[in-house]
Design brief:
Blueprint: H1 4-19, E1 28-31, H2 35-44, E2 53-56, H3 59-67, E3 72-73, E4 81-86, E5 90-91, E6 97-98, H4 105-114, E7 115-123, E8 136-140, H5 145-154, E9 158-161, E10 172-177, H6 184-192, E11 197-200, E12 202-203, E13 210-215, E14 218-222
Parallel strand pairs: 1-2, 1-4, 2-3, 4-7, 7-13
Antiparallel strand pairs: 5-6, 6-12, 8-10, 8-11, 9-10, 13-14
Bound molecules: ribulose-5-phosphate.
């Protein structure tokens, strides 16, 4: 029986096999955040001479890549990327995702928006029928925290402040539990419209293009 870390490592290895044939000396990859992505970065480092570098979605991933000698670019310098590679907290069968468990949701959504395609790497525990069991992270401007929390409660959620946590953007996160998100893109648009919301962790208006899901029987590709 493989542990969750071994499953994540297998998903990361499958992602390397997936992107490697597409890398050229001018390729810049978008790289996300989290424990699965940490394993992806470690597996990517030996191939650093085959591509130009990466744009990262967090200080954490930037530091890890820099330590391994992968050049990290500012997004403002990079107009396009073929792939954005990242994990997820939940993914459904339509490839909608909840992300942001690691707090990097806003930069993740920004970097993903510049990439042509999103490659999601997960272990099988992340696959769900309906999104929402994992509390949905919502990044908020600190002075708007309470008004946003009231709006989220009116939408049926139970928002809880992520205590002692400040995002890379100097903002706070409300983790919203008690949701069963049956129309993810519509709900994402609704949350985006609340003044004070910087970004929500629903990736449904633009979901994943390919999911590599690691199972006890091997890695499955969902498209
Ligand atoms: C970080 C994220 C991560 O992709 C998500 O939390 C999954 O993390 P892990 O790979 O550690 O399970 O969205 O903001």
């Amino acid at each position: 029986m493989l542990t969750q870390t071994e499953l994540k490592r297998n998903a990361a290895a499958a992602a390397i096999e997936f992107v490697l044939p597409q890398l050229t000396p001018s390729t810049v990859l978008g790289v996300g955040t989290g424990s699965t992505v940490d394993l992806f970065i470690d597996a990517l480092a030996p191939h650093k001479h085959r591509f130009r570098g990466a744009v990262s979605s967090s200080e954490r991933s930037s530091a890890r890549m820099a330590a391994l000698g992968i050049p990290v670019f500012d997004l403002n310098e990079i107009p396009s990327m073929p792939w954005y590679v990242d994990g997820a907290d939940e993914v459904d069968h339509e490839l909608n995702m909840i992300k942001g468990g690691g707090g990097a949701l806003t930069r993740e959504k920004i970097v993903a928006s510049v990439a042509e395609r999103f490659l999601c790497i997960v272990d099988e525990s992340k696959l769900v029928r309906v999104l929402g069991k994992f509390p949905l992270p919502v990044e908020v401007i600190p002075m708007a925290r309470e008004v946003v929390a009231r709006r989220l409660a009116a939408l049926g959620g139970k928002p809880a402040l992520r205590e002692g946590y400040v995002t890379d953007n100097g903002c706070q996160i409300l983790d919203v539990s008690g949701l069963a998100i049956d129309a993810p893109a519509r709900f994402e648009a609704e949350l985006n419209n609340i003044p004070g919301v910087v970004c929500c962790g629903l990736f449904a208006i633009a979901g994943a293009d390919v999911v590599l899901m690691s199972t006890q029987q091997g890695v499955r590709q969902l498209t």
